[in-house]
Design a protein that fits this description.
mainly alpha, 11 helices
């Protein structure tokens, strides 16, 4: 057999195994029982409209606030990492290594309980939303900083040299020349960061939430305890997919567009 024939035969075996697995699952599974347990329409119907007006809305709100905060802090940390001033670089490096190493759950716990104990007279602007924004945003900023730093370094040095030759100051060159091109490069990975923040919003429960502050995971867990059915978790997962799948498609389109532009 030639190499092409062996490759075709190997693929044929793989397809046959895949079809066999699908057929086995379709025949062996107790689908009525699965539908009753995981796709109970009566239980799912009782979740609406609160799962949309409270849980889904809060999930989107927490994600957007944390992303904006993380993006602002991430830009500052990225510039500090690229600074020619030694202490700035050290602080930026320490921040990135610290918050990339700490679990997001621990950072939220520190924000919720550590800071108030250390500074009794301090309160976060916005109260609970401020805690969520800072707690999730601090971790996200560490990853965004590295992404933005890579984008800045990917901008050709000739762009900066040309701008300085025209008499632009370093600050104006950074704002009008470097950062716009850098953000164009890093838009796809930053969109991925939104998806990660969407899922990290499920950790907000550590702050001590009320029913009006529930996000999708906490709302689904609470409803699961009341209904004694896993259907609420399935509904919550499907709503997460309704948010993440369009973002994933956006990332792919942006990557294709960027590749064409290059």
């Amino acid at each position: 057999m030639t190499r092409r024939q062996r490759a075709r035969a190997f693929r044929g075996v793989q397809y046959a195994i895949l079809v066999a697995i699908i057929v086995f699952i379709a025949v062996a599974a107790d689908w009525p029982r699965v539908a009753e347990a995981f796709f109970n329409t009566e239980v799912a119907g009782r979740m609406f409209p609160r799962v949309l007006g409270i849980a889904l809305l809060n999930t989107v709100k927490y994600t957007i606030l944390a992303f904006v905060f993380g993006l602002v802090v991430g830009v500052i940390i990225a510039l500090m990492r690229l600074s020619s001033v030694g202490p700035y670089r050290w602080i930026g490096t320490l921040y990135v290594e610290l918050f990339r190493g700490l679990p997001a759950l621990l950072v939220l716990f520190i924000v919720a309980y550590g800071i108030p104990n250390a500074f009794p007279n301090f309160s976060f602007p916005g109260g609970f939303l401020g805690q969520v924004t800072v707690g999730l945003g601090l971790t996200a900023a560490a990853y965004m900083a590295e992404t933005i730093r890579a984008g800045i370094q990917a901008v050709p040095k000739g762009q900066v040299e040309a701008a300085r030759t025209l008499g632009m100051s370093p600050g104006r060159t950074l704002i009008t020349i470097v950062l716009p091109q850098a953000f164009r490069i890093v838009i796809p990975p930053l969109t991925n960061e939104i998806i990660l923040l969407l899922k990290d919003s499920s950790l907000v429960y550590v702050l001590g939430v009320t029913t009006a502050q529930y996000e999708l995971t906490k709302f689904s867990q609470d409803f699961l305890n009341k209904a004694v059915s896993p259907t609420p978790l399935v509904v919550g997962g499907l709503l997460y997919l309704c948010l993440t799948l369009p973002l994933s498609q956006l990332v792919r389109r942006l990557e294709i567009r960027h590749a064409r532009a290059r």
